[in-house]
Amino acid sequence: MKTYKKIGLAAFAAVSIVACKPKGTQTAVSGDAAEKVYVAPGKHDEVYNFVSGGFNGQISVVGLPSGRTLKIVPVFSVHPENGYGFSEETKPMLETSHGFVPWDDQHHLALSQTNGEIDGRYLFANANNTPRVAKIDLTTFKTTEIIEIPNSAGNHSSPFLTENTEYVVAGTRFAVPVDGQGDVPIESFKENFKGYLSFIGIGKEDGKMDITFQIEAPGFNFDLSHAGKGKSHGWFFFSCYNSEQANTLLEVNASQNEKDFIMAVNWKKAEEYLKAGKAKKMAVEYAHNTFDESTQMAKSEILKEVSVLSAKELKDICYLIPCPKSPHGCDIDPTGEYIIGSGKLAALIPVFSFDKLMKAIADKNFSGEFDGIPIVKYDAVLHGEVQKPGLGPLHTEFDGKGNAYTSMFVSSEVVKWDIATCKVLDRTPTFYSVGHLMIPGGDTKNPYGKYLVAYNKITKDRYLPTGPELTQSAQLFDISGDKMKLLLDFPTIGEPHYAQAGPAALFTKNQIKFYKLEDNKHPYATKGEAESKVVREGNKVHVYMTSIRSHFAPDNIEGVKVGDEVYFHVTNLEQDWDVPHGFAVKGAQNAELLIMPGETCTLKWVPLKPGMYPMYCTDFCSALHQEMQGYVRVSPAGSNTPLIYSLNNKKDNAQSPVKQGETK
């Protein structure tokens, strides 16, 4: 009953805060805010902000301080705007051990680091629903690799990086039986359900991902994580709740214990055990999908094995730090000394010391074990507690000046506090429930500071209404002074969770502006109009097509028959920045193509009935964009219409009808 009362009071507080708009919101923005966020025509934003898309499965790229959306990067969901997941080249990117999965729930992001600082090479993203981690190449802003994670469900505690991008880690949110265990009763949770931590190695030269090893841990719900840095490099820290190991009505049954845990993982020691042969090989199935920039094609392969270390058997790789209560965020300050846990139901913020943790482990200052893992004493590792910071602490970011900023979901505010003294320095309302925070470089050894963005979950009264669902909200604060100042309130794409950001110069210096035609190794590339052609191979018709301002070659095709599989392989001949061409054909059941300069993309089309089918460019490319069109004549199945194609009424290489299975 006490637990029910606590939850009821928290819920009442949350509803009250959401329902009552704070007074004075119209004057909350400082007088010079508009000047500080204005980016004049021809000028650029100073910061790239990469924002998770939540339930839309994509990533949005936002400029700061303007708040303008610059691009949507498709990652885990099909994207009709450019054909991602629809084109023959990109379909393999969404393959999994469960088959083709065209959607996911994308929560967290991590920019690659060198020596604990953002290096501008890659962005990593998690898929929460069907566990996967993706890598986005920031020279092209394209998803180039996705790896599925076996023995996992609810890949929420992911993807977080070590300070030299040695590993990206992923912890399972839902404890589950090991893959392949078969039909297991839910009531056997405590006996058969485990939590797995995956350490995905990143190649130093090519950035290629592989699951180097997994750690089998107790059946907790792993929530969030961050790597140590500086003195704590070699360690990883995961928040975990449901130490009750409940499997039903978790809002009550997983909120019984006064403290859950932060799990500290010595991954350097785990590496030693791996090299010493202490891991067991486990038979699993998981997909590894890669996109080759030279061929502009993706491939998917199913891998069959993973190496697993047991935290229960190898007692010096994992340690549990008690943390009140139902911890969510787990954040490490820039020095690597302080570990901040944020209990969703806690009325304080605990700050733990890495040095004290090392001493407690050395002294075996433990209060017991949980499933074979030592539990260090709370007071032995505690640096201090931030008292009465607010209600519902979730996430903490850092400004590099000794200050921490924590989001308070229930009391709808951001609280600034001093890490050394644990004293609250400032607080500012976000008006509605705030989730994640982001400071550019805020999880690195050297934060850039200046800006803080709060990503809010509920936005009543912030924007014009749009039916039952309102847009998500982001709020930009100036944190360069002693007091936080609200500068801008702007809408976001999807439901943002975590975000990452860095100075624009880190990313603009490496941008690829177009693909060189001579480097295009796509097997169906057509590098000039003279090479364009249409070839029948049985019931498959391959159209080797070019696009250039402002026509396709060929632009008239006859002899396609109902039921044929038509593959339009379109090569954009442009060699100029920002001149993509689109391609669409009437009746296509999938999407358009958006082909970058020098790139080749393929659209599969199966006509279902005879007729005349226009095709056209979908991306406005020139004054004569409307004239960039053509026709495909589709004849009945079994007809004798010859396969011919032309440009400017010049017919080329007419093919006579061929029988099924023949090539001409």
UniProtKB/TrEMBL annotation:
Pfam families associated with the record: nos_propeller
NCBIfam families in UniProt: nitrous_NosZ_Gp
Amino acid composition bias (Polar residues), ranges on this chain: 645-658
Oxidoreductase recorded as keyword: yes
Chief place of localization: other
Annotated segments matching region Disordered: 645-664
Entry EC number(s): 1.7.2.4
Subcellular compartments: Cell envelope
Name used for this protein in its record: Nitrous-oxide reductase
GO-annotated cellular components: cell envelope
Matching Gene3D superfamilies: Cupredoxins - blue copper proteins, YVTN repeat-like/Quinoprotein amine dehydrogenase
Keyword annotations from UniProtKB, A to Z: Copper, Metal-binding, Oxidoreductase
Signal peptide residue numbers: none
UniProt-recorded Gene Ontology molecular function terms: copper ion binding; nitrous-oxide reductase activity
